[in-house]
Amino acid sequence: MRALLSPEPPSISYLTPTRTTKRRSIFHWKIQTSLRFSAGNGNCSIRPRSMCLNVKSALDSATIDQLGLPESEIRNPSVSPSYRSWKLPKPNQTVLDAQARVCTGPTQTKPLGEEQALKVLDTILRSAKGELKDQEEVSKAQLGAFFAGMTIRANAFPEATQWSDGERRAMNKFWPLLVRVLPPDVLFIADPEGSIMGIGGSAGPHYVGNGPSEMRLVGALREVLAGGHLGYEEVQGVLRDVLPLKLEDKKSAGVSESLLSAFLIGQRMNRETDRELKAYCLAFDDELGSQPVADVRSLTHYGEPYDGNTRYFRSTLFVAAVRSCYSESCLLHGVEWMPPKGGITEEQMLKFMGANTQLSPLQAKKLLEDDEVGFAYLSQREAQPSLHSIIGLREHIKKRPPLATSEKVQQLVRAQGREAIIAGFFHEGYEEPLLMLMRRRGVHSGLVVKGEEGALSMTTKLRSVNASKGLPVNYCSGFRSLSATSALELDGVSRENFNIVINAKDYGFEPTDTPRTDRSVSRNIELGLAALRGEKGPAYDRIVLNAGIADHLLGCDGAEDIFSALDRAREAIDSGKALDRLLNYIKISHKMK
């Protein structure tokens, strides 16, 4: 680690881009976009042109069905919000805004004022009575999350984040009316032991649910609503019982959405224990059978936040293409669109560029082993369909559930050689749980990064004097094994732990502002491909920085010296190899069988 802690002035050599292989364009656009990919004289160029797309974004789902419009005609695939499925019902915004305040942790919760509380409860009442005409109805998932938040605050939170006087007055006014119209499962969530509301207090203590799966969920939820915690087997049992969540005609099959949303947000509000988080992380490892094992000497699993970036350049897809050039195979995983941010994801970029995003784990294994590719992307939709089934419900929960942490630490394909996991985080306190999950996975090396927006992309930007308190951007923490033995077999002596804040200037990078993308998928792609084409600038520097630092911190072969690691990443770009890898991926992904 001395190379990082005591950097010397870098010796950087830039290679002149050379391309010797002619390539035909392999991008086949169904619509006109803001990017044009062309091949001439062996070079891949990017030429902007005006957008010629008519987006029918104002149409509601009923109108779309009536007109028979295909989904491709109502999307603008160059921006991330368009990847949200129009089939998902939207939440009620009034209640969602309240959930953002009351469905969070013991110190972060912000009690509602009386005016807002009255408005929220009135909205819930009118929705339950079918009288809410001017906005979306309050969904079952929203009812479960909101009342779970209120119950846990009343039962277990410190005085400062318990109910405000205004909330109490509002509830005293509306609860006698709500108790007449809310379904039994919501009445249970709102007052599970009959000790909070007074009126109608007998419903909660006697509620058991419908069917074995729901009865098990109710039993676990009683403990959660009291501020308690569950065992590893209990959490896994609940998750496997109730998922996948099948939605047909807005009705769930097998379990109440109110109960499930209360369970998910309740566990996060109580701050999950290590055993609870491990249960979420490992629950669906074998959903499709045993994970395939790739014949590669080194494999890094990338755990980007599934809900994407909304402001800044997201570099990981391009970093993977770079690292694959020198046999550091990379497996990315995620979703097309995920709340609450609904930002740019790797799946959106690959889909926009024409890649196959419906690969199975076995097909991803073959791409990892392919000498012309060396990296792969797996969608949660294909690899863990049970977890993917609750994306819509997660939007109605509003706040991130425990899955937002555990889904970043997955091994959807294994390797015969060394394995590492990298995950991004934002909120201080989650770096150690993430590293705990990585150690539980048995990987040789693990790394958590506080990149921009809580993603993995470290920046070359200097830290502002007005930066928020807590861990700074570019903070890294992790471990790496000093032997080839699996981390599960180590006694702790053979593992090196570290934490460090990366100052890019120390390694020869000029400070630059991070390129803004502002939810533009096409802009993110344009920046990334221009960098892989050898165009120097902020995007190029970030790709090099993130590739070289990862290689060094994970203990990869040939990266013992940080400056050598950075030069190797530059050579992969400037030689044209990294761009070739990305283009090969798009082409070969469609040949997978």
TrEMBL record:
<dbReference type="GO" id="GO:0003921">
    <property type="term" value="F:GMP synthase activity"/>
</dbReference>
<protein>
    <recommendedName>
        <fullName>Anthranilate phosphoribosyltransferase</fullName>
    </recommendedName>
</protein>
<keyword id="KW-0808">Transferase</keyword>
<dbReference type="GO" id="GO:0006177">
    <property type="term" value="P:GMP biosynthetic process"/>
</dbReference>
<dbReference type="GO" id="GO:0016757">
    <property type="term" value="F:glycosyltransferase activity"/>
</dbReference>
<keyword id="KW-0328">Glycosyltransferase</keyword>
<dbReference type="InterPro" id="IPR035902">
    <property type="entry name" value="Nuc_phospho_transferase"/>
</dbReference>
<dbReference type="GO" id="GO:0005829">
    <property type="term" value="C:cytosol"/>
</dbReference>
